[in-house]
Amino acid sequence: MNEQEVNWDDVRDLARRVSSGEPFTLTAESRAILQRTGPQVGIPQAEVEKALRSEASAATLLTEVSRRIRDGSNRLSRALSEATRRQEANDLDGARQLLRDVVEDEVVPLYRDIAQIQLEALDEE
Question: What is the value of pTM for the model shown?
Fold first, then answer.
């Protein structure tokens, strides 16, 4: 997955508008956003397509996509920060374990890939 493929600004903007009270409408644009971002956050394409059959389930999908982006980002940030702290304290095993846990548990492929890259960098030390 390259950086150009992963641009979640549109889904974040849509979710922000809906959470601010704007009604969710299943349009060609919102459908395209969810079809693209669902798989990027670990939701199988078949589940995305099923959710896009109705406006209510598409709105639920939007909430889930947005939650995965937000929660995964927070988990990754915390893990990277703590891994750096442990690395600076010469606890490389602890830092590696934190990153292994993210690689093992994270559902968003991009965040899992970032943790894997950091883990490999630590393993080279």
Answer: 0.89
